[in-house]
Amino acid sequence: MKFALILFAFFFLNNTVTPAQTAKDFAADWDKQHFSTIAPSDLRHADLKKQLDELKKIGLKVEEVGKSYASREIYQIEWGKGATKVFMWSQMHGDEPTATPAVLDMLAYLQKNRGKSWVKELENSLTIRVVPMLNPDGAELFQRRNLQSIDINRDAQDLQTPEGNLLKKLRDEWQPAIGFNLHNQGSLTTVGRTPKQATISLLAVLGNPEGKTNDGHERNKRICAVMINALNQFVPGHIGRYDDEYNPRAFGDKISEWGTPVILIETGALHGRDEMFLVKLNYVAYLSALKSLADKSERQADAKIYETLPFNSSGGLYNYIFRRANIVNFAENAEPFTADISINTDRRRAAEFAPTFIREIGDLSIYTGLDEYDAKDFYLVNKSGLVRNGGSGEFMFYKKTREIDWKAKDLEKIFPPDAIFTNGKWTKGEKLLLKKF
Ligand SMILES: [Zn+2]
């Protein structure tokens, strides 16, 4: 009796002292032992292959399951031995890379930490299959479409791409219970009409044009709520709801319709944070979701947290706004005029030069710039002599108190500007213009 009591006490205490794995713990784990080191946008197919070799060495099951249009290998990794089948695929759009290192980090962590009780629970409840970089040809060119110039995510009906065919085949043969469709969205997407960037947006895909719900969709809404609660601890207010109409050509919709309810995760950006931070957020989101599925805690989650999330919005945010600039189009010998001017940065790989372009000139008082400068005490000119929409975001600034002969040949040499802003960087006179925020 006494022994039984001690035994009971041991198990009871042992259970209660096992700390629950929280979103903060997932993030701390990632900080300590993430596997990926290359910025997602710089990750090539050749790098992926090397990383998959590393995963094989630690015992993960990595299999070549198909080839891209240009015959690049497409792989699937499997982990776990549970009854619930989880299917995840990343980078169907070649220039949407954040999820690729995030899924690899997740699998590496799970494989290396199988001794942990929460990992064991995942291993025994779930079987996870992941296709990282479904579109390796697009990834190589850092373009959305595959090498046939087809958007794979519009090929779910036509099935003219090898990559789309493969995705359908992998789903049909395995009939997973849940799918995670992993993408990136524009960095200037906002949460509703706020100026807050939508760092992560979620969609529990319905998969039918009538808007009918089902058990899988309801479960996915609760899992989205779990992810929102987790992510809100790191990027409060920066989570949006992806607003998407049913599209019979899209895989998210079709895969849901075929019987695997899909959650779409769209990664945006967060000003001042790099791509690896976004990888960490994805990692935290996936593990929070999968843990809630494995320990069934998703059943207690409140779908309203997802349902009341503001929808994504766009058009209200720019990378840079120069307020009340005195624009001089000296190539036209024109008089200065006052305007706000916005420029955006083109999306490029992290290691590549990202040019900026003028997007709007005029009264931009209702818009927000991630960086804003007060230009009211300055003349703003473009090196070409013309400030026009679509022109390059390379500006020279002159204090208004200066006498400048705008007709002077070789203006920059004879009248050196006080500040120069070139494609997102101050190359002269940094901090001369007052920065807002
Ligand atoms: Zn996409």
Overview of this structure, please?
The protein is an alpha/beta fold. It folds into two domains: 19-313, Zn peptidases (Aminopeptidase, 3-Layer(aba) Sandwich), CATH 3.40.630.10; 317-436, Roll (Urease, subunit C, domain 1). The chain has twelve helices and 19 strands. The protein has helices spanning 2-17, 23-33, 45-57, 99-112, 117-125, 136-141, 162-174, 215-231, 251-257, 275-294, 303-307, 411-414; strands at residues 61-67, 73-79, 84-90, 126-131, 178-184, 190-191, 200-204, 239-241, 262-267, 312-313, 317-327, 337-345, 356-362, 368-374, 378-382, 394-399, 419-422, 425-428, 434-436. The strands form three sheets. Strands 11, 12, 13, 14, 15, 16, 17, 18 and 19 form a nine-stranded mixed sheet that branches. An eight-stranded mixed sheet has the order 1-2-4-3-5-9-7-8, sandwiched between helices. A two-stranded antiparallel ribbon has the order 6-10. α8 (215-231) packs across α10. The chain is elongated, with a radius of gyration of 26 Å. Mean pLDDT is 95; it is low at 13-17. The structure holds zinc ion. Residues 93, 96, 183 line the site of zinc ion. Zinc ion is lined by residues 93, 96, 183.
